[in-house]
Specification:
By secondary structure, the chain is mostly helical. The protein is built from seven helices and four strands. It has one domain: P-loop containing nucleotide triphosphate hydrolases (Rossmann fold, 3-Layer(aba) Sandwich). A two-stranded parallel ribbon has the order 1-2. Strands 3-4 form a two-stranded parallel sheet. Helix 1 crosses helix 7, helix 2 packs across helix 3 and helix 5 crosses helix 6. The longest helix has 23 residues.
Length: 159
Amino acid sequence: MGCGKTTLGRKLAAKLNYPFIDLDVILEQQTGVTIADYFAAHGETNFRELESKVLKEIVYPKNAIISTGGGLPCFFDNMDWMNTQGTTIYIKLTPGMLASRLEHEKHKRPLISNLEGDGLIDFIEAKLKDREKFYLKADYIIGNKITVDGIIELVKVLP
């Protein structure tokens, strides 16, 4: 959450002339409500089940760049499934960097909407502690300094 998956994914897709798919957008289109509203109305368990179902039922175009929600890799067999379907990348940032990026978007994110300052950082640290074992299964781990060209070189993708 907040690491720049969508922004970086869009730039990478544009550079490679690949389709870009944001699973959060697809979820919102399919449910007719925002993720925050769905989460609030149906709870995390129902949301995670729907998210996993959508991930696995979409027919993806060849060479697409896909952005997922931050929790998606951590439920069911989603990360293992993604690793068998394509190349996965974990954008690893510090809790402080993530908190700074998320501060102005909290209203869109149900898990952090009521957190501030140290409370937000503590929450992010706890989430990363729980989730990182899944994120570290990614094919590549990058930081915030990498460029789109750097990603292309790293994974040896040719447009």
